[in-house]
Amino acid sequence: MSLYENLLLNLENGILVITINRADKLNALNIDTIREIKAAIQQVYDDPAVKGAIFTGAGEKAFVAGADISEISELSDVNARSFAERGQEVFSMIERCTKPVIAAVNGFALGGGCELAMACHMRIASEGARFGQPEVNLGLIPGYGGTQRLTQLIGKGKAMELMMTADMVGANEAKELGLVNHVVPAIELLPKCMEILTKIVSKAPLAIGLVIDCVNAVYDKDEDGYQTEANSFARCCSSEDFVEGTNAFLEKRKPVFKGA
Ligand code: COA
Fold first, then answer.
1. Helices 77-96, 31-46: inter-axial angle, 10-degree rounding
2. Per-residue pLDDT for 129 more than 90?
3. Domain coordinates of the chain in residue numbers?
């Protein structure tokens, strides 16, 4: 039996495409799906054949329409904290993954769906995608890191507005806000993500992972980002890929990186 009941996993040219597969519920994240996302991202960490990953949603309507409201409605103050912390832990794993992870946002990205997209290293949206944090409509607030990551991505005033009005924004507005990197026709969404990831994974993998670490350090109040950058720069300079990259440049050939 497959490890996954709510996800489809497909490895294409070193890129693991992880599809949230509950289209009849607009790919809402129930607890089992969160558990499966954790297992899938662990696979990205562990499997050397996986060079990068894409999260997307099944069907044409939704990326992910939020946490599963039928489960949320059962939460009490006793289990709600661990519910939020479990989701936060999984989304932090995505954010901290040292292999590149892109959200291919193919429709509604609401609540936990917007939070999942924001945990990825970048977001590419189809023209019909819609983003929002509508939790206040339910008497809730975002609980999977949304209050933090939305503010980091689009700034305090706009984040306050989106979270307090529960308004949705379309793909082009999301791009203007800085929530989305590119907007493309639906048919070009996965090819565009593949194109970007193919380019990234052709670079030195250690350097790519250290870029991710250093950018994340900006948002870690316990870390001195400049120190992290200097340490990471030094780490690169002791790598085989640095020798290969600089030699290849001087010898006017393409580098062959090993990730070491
Ligand atoms: N949790 C559980 N089920 C959800 C869901 C969610 N977050 N979002 C959608 N669904 C389910 C609906 O209940 C419906 O199931 P049903 O066919 O068994 O009744 C199915 O998905 C289709 O949704 P529906 O509401 O009929 O689609 P729509 O096109 O009319 O509206 C949305 C789309 C996204 C605007 C609407 O589904 C919605 O507002 N969803 C909730 C968004 C939200 O508040 N997310 C944050 C949760 S914390």
1. 30
2. yes
3. 7-201, 205-250
Instruction: For residue 74, indicate whether it is catalytic.
Output: no
89 is catalytic: no
Nearest CA to ligand 1 atom 22: 25
pLDDT digits (tens, 9 = 90+) for 192-208: 999 999 999 999 999 99
Q: Would the pTM count as exceeding 0.90?
A: yes
Give the DSSP per-residue string, 90-117. Answer: HHHHHHH-SS-EEEEE-SEEETHHHHHH
Question: Does ligand 1 come within 6 angstroms of the Cβ of 163?
Answer: no
* Ligand 1 geometric centre to CA of 183 (Å): 24
Cα separation, 55 vs 35, in Å, equals 15
**Residue 86 and residue 102: Cα distance in Å, rounded?**
21
- CA nearest to 3, candidates 31, 37, 30: 37
Q: Does ligand 1 come within 6 angstroms of the Cβ of 25?
A: yes
pLDDT tens digits for range 147-196? 999 999 999 999 999 999 999 999 999 999 999 999 999 999 999 999 99
Query: Ligand 1: which residue has its CA nearest to atom 1?
Result: 68
State yes or no: pLDDT of 47 exceeds 80.
yes
Tokens of 90: 């999984």
Q: What residue type is 222 in one-letter code? A: D
Q: CATH fold of 7-201, please?
A: 2-enoyl-CoA Hydratase; Chain A, domain 1 (3.90.226)
135 Cβ below 6 A of ligand 1? yes
**Among protein residues, the one whose CA lies closest to atom 7 of ligand 1:** 66
The residue from 115, 127, 161, 229 that is catalytic is: 115
